[in-house]
Structures are given as structure tokens and as C-alpha cells.
Amino acid sequence: MLKVYNTLSREKEEFIPLEKGKVGIYVCGLTVQNYSHLGHIRGAVNYDVIRRYLEYKGYEVRYIQNFTDINEKIFERAREERMTPEELAEKYTQAYLEDIKRLNIKGATHYVKATDNIDEIIKMIEKIIENGYAYEVNGNVYFDVEKYTDYGKLSGRTLEEMQAGARVDIVEEKKNPLDFALWKKAPEGAIDWDSPWGRGWPGWHIECSAMSTKYLGESFDIHGGGSDLVFPHHENEIAQSETCTGKPFAKYWLHNGSVNFKGEKMSKSVGNFFTTRELLEKFTGRELRYYILTFHYRSPIEFSLEEVKNTSAGLRKIDNTLKNLLRLKESKTKEGALKNGKYKVSINEYKKAFEEAMDDDFNTARAIGIIHEFLREINSVINHMDFQLTGENMVVVNEAYEFLNTGMSILGIEKENPVIDERNTEILNDLITFILDVREEARKRKNWEMADMIRDGLNELGIIIKDTPQGVVWERVSE
RNA sequence: GGCGGCAUAGCCAAGUGGUAAGGCAGAGGACUGCAAAUCCUUUAUUCUCCAGUUCGAAUCUGGAUGCCGCCUCCA
């Protein structure tokens, strides 16, 4: 049974989609004003795994993500980079899509952006005004928080509490300082749109309400985003949507933890961030992704370059086992070899444990732990001196490979083909096989100097030699 | 100031009231001509501290301390 932690109830709840077999997810993306950093990517990886696991469970997933492409920041940055706001948004949207590709993120089924949905946004605002929850002053439209009695239900605070500790600038024309803009009169010279309230542009929160409703319906299953969006962004989305439609908005609210660095949340304004691109110069996308997934998605990450490096050793261990399994899969079974019952591996137990971990609010950290426990068991079997590739053992090898491979693809750290490397052309293969034959001959004659010279020489060319009990194997250093 | 969360080994990190997963690093051993890879053993009598509930607490309650997030643009 899949359980998810719902910010709305502050509890783990059984996941039951509104429509059987289908799941609608809306994830708040980013304002496309600069290159993405690790904080953005962390969320994207987390929701990608959630999506992959739901698909693994057989759900048909509709995954919507937005790009905020119109606001003050976009204009500011467009001026800095001397391009139009559209060009700027397009540039960083493309950059983001490239970044997530390198982290093996499947990507949304639909990407949506505010500027493509101005009509929907205006209609929604009109409806909210009509229902009596918003008012217009001087070309601005504000949501009236005092009218909406549920205001604060997501972030768990009351209007009184919020007012007590308010840090909001007092804007004279607002009825309550916490009233937020649905439509803003645009500054001079800005790109703006016609509306019943004059020219302007949408407030930040309304685009997500309008677009999620358009693509997923008035009520849908999962709404996700970073924990820093709980208030005010998601609180306001609920307020707008529910006063517009009169129906419950998203059923489950999921929030991923932040990425901190040097004791503070990684952010553009603090300046303590690594862009995804910078990190991809130091690590592979798989390494970063694996690192992210060693944390539970709701826990904050105190980021450390050193830790990414250390954690990657664990990933290499998984890769090694996969390589070894694949090698065995591709070798011939020894007919008539002894039937060996003692090499039974309880793969189903591990599979069950893996699923239980994922069912428990997508606990990838635990799931990875289970994979490593499995590694120990399967490695001890296939590396055992007595291990022979009988038909029975071949079944074990195949099932083990299948299990690992499936687990890896749920986590999105699958490797296309760990052994067959397209760089290994036939001639290269033959050449190395020949060199290794020479080395074997040297070893037979106990000419260790010669044997080691060959091994070291190949090593420098990026080829690693391993003398396993099953014979000599070689591979190229990955990446 | 208001609201919420977290504190688990040298480091990172799971943890469902029933006796502390996993990874990295370290130590010892097996295998090996030496390596690499892998396996085995070992590394928290205890989960920040103090009370309480309970037969039983890392888990629940209260308090203290420390750290983080949100309340302003944020993923």
C-alpha cells in the first residue's frame, strides 16, 4: 500500500487517486531567469522518481510542470542580458531542459508557461471576483484573505498569527496586508496584457491555479514543489482555486526539502549556490542523482562536494555488480555442471523490501540501502570459487540482474549497457584480447615484471585488468 | 517576534513502541605472484540533554540546548 506524506494533513496517508489507474501531478517549476542550481534539480529528481514509481505501480501519469516566464525578475534580467524577456525566458528554459536531461529526468508530459495562458488566468480572476473573494483597486486585483475562512490551512497558521508576525509592507490600497495580487498593473514600458482591469500582468500565484486546472481538472491528485513554496505560493493557490471552483483543489500536497550549503539555503540571492552546469563538470549526472536520492525527499540536504564524491563509491559498487551479472548472462551455461541448490537467493524478499521502502512515502534512502544489502548477497554468490554457471544458477543471475536493473530504473540511475561499450570496436577487442594473451603467457612463465608492465601500460590507457577466478576481464574506465 | 521541522558512529544517512538498515572512511582476515574486484569479521550496550508515560522508548509526552526552514523573491 502506497503511503504519501500530505502537507495538508501533516500525516502519511494512503494514496488513492481520484480516478482509478490515473494520476495527475502538477509540480511548480522555476522562474526561467537564470541557469538552474542544485536546489531546483533536487526537486526535479525527487518528483521524477515519484513519477517513475507511480508508473512502475501501473498508473498512467500526467505530469505538468510550469515555467514562470513573466515577472519583475525576468524584466530585470532581460535588461542585464540585453535581450527581450521572451528571449531570456526561452534561453533559460532550454538550458533547464538540457540540465534535467543530463540527470536522466524524464521531463513533464506537458510543460506550460504563464504567457501562453493569459486568457485562462483572466477568466479565473473574473470568477473569483464574481464569487466575492477578490476586489479591484487602481488596476490591481487583490485576493481578499479575510473572506476565505480556510486561509492558512496548508501552512498551518491562522490569519491572526500571520498578522502578528507580519513582515509584509503595508500597501494602502489593500484591505488586509496579507491580501495578495491576482492581477498587477504593469510598470511603464513593460510587456503587458489587456484585461478588464486595464493593462497589466498576472500575479505570481494565479498562473499555477489556472494552468493546473486547465491541464488536470478542477481537482487533481498531487501537487508538488519545494518546501519554501508552502507559504505563500501554495497557500494562495489553494485560496484562489477553491474560491473559484468551490471544489477541493489538489488532494495530496508534497514538498521536497531544501538544499543548504554553508549552513544556509542555497539561493541566488545569498549567492551560496552551485549551478547544475558547474556540478556537472565535477560529477556525472548519475552521481549527482544518486547523491540526491540517498536522502529522503523531505529532508533538507546539507550539500557537500566531498560527500558527493564519497557517496559515488557506493554507486560504483552497484555498477560493478551489474557488470559482473551482465558478463555472466552473456556467457554460455555449462551443461551438465553440478546442480547447486545452495545458491538460491531470495530475490523476492529484496524486491518486496524495496517496494515497501518506496511505498513508504518514496523512501529512496532505504530503498538504496536494500539494494546494497542485496549486493552483498549476490556478490558473495557469483564471486564464490565454487560458483558454476549451471542452468539453475543462470536463473539466479537473470533474476538478480532483472531486480537490480528494475530498481535502478525506478531510481533513474540505470545504465544503458554497462558492459558493451560502443567505443569498444571489434579491432580494439581483438587487440586487447591479444595483449592479454601475451600477458597470460608471461604469467605462466612467472615473468611478473612483464605481466605487470602490460597491466600498468593498459591502465594508463584507461583500461583496467582484473584477474578474477573466472579468468581475466577488462573494461574501460567509465566517463 | 510568530509558525513549523530536525538532532542517530569519524563523516553521510534510514528507522514502523519490541531491543539500532545502508553507504563512505578505518582496522583485521580470505582470495591473488602482486594488484584490482569481491567476500568475511570488526567499528553506536545506545540515538543532544533532563524528566515523564509504558512490561518495554531513538520512536510517545513535557522541558532545556543547538541547528535549519517559512513568515520577502524562492525549488
Write structural notes for this entry.
The chain is of the alpha/beta class and 479 residues long. It folds into 3 domains: 3-302, HUPs (Rossmann fold, 3-Layer(aba) Sandwich), CATH 3.40.50.620; 311-411, Four Helix Bundle (Hemerythrin (Met), subunit A), CATH 1.20.120; 426-476, no CATH class. The chain has helices at 38-56, 72-81, 85-102, 118-130, 159-164, 206-216, 230-245, 276-282, 285-293, 305-330, 347-359, 364-382, 391-411, 426-444, 448-460; strands at residues 3-6, 11-14, 22-27, 60-67, 110-113, 134-137, 140-143, 181-185, 200-202, 220-226, 250-256, 259-261, 264-265, 301-302, 463-468, 471-476. The chain has a 5-stranded parallel β-sheet with strand order 5-4-3-10-11, with helices on both faces. Strands 6-7-8-9 form a 4-stranded antiparallel β-sheet, with helices on one face. Helix 12 (364-382) packs antiparallel against helix 13 (391-411) and helix 14 (426-444) runs antiparallel to helix 15 (448-460). The structure holds one RNA strand of 75 nucleotides.
Number of helices: 15
- The class by helix and strand makeup works out as alpha/beta
How would a textbook summarize the main sheet? 5 strands, parallel
Helix content: 40-55%
What overall geometry do the principal axes of the alpha carbons give?
elongated
Number of strands: 16
What is the CATH homology-level superfamily of the largest domain?
HUPs
Poorly predicted runs are none
The radius of gyration is 28 Å
Q: What is the average of the pLDDT values?
A: 90
The CATH topology of the largest domain is what?
Answer: Rossmann fold
Order of strands across the biggest sheet? 5-4-3-10-11
CATH architecture of the largest domain: 3-Layer(aba) Sandwich
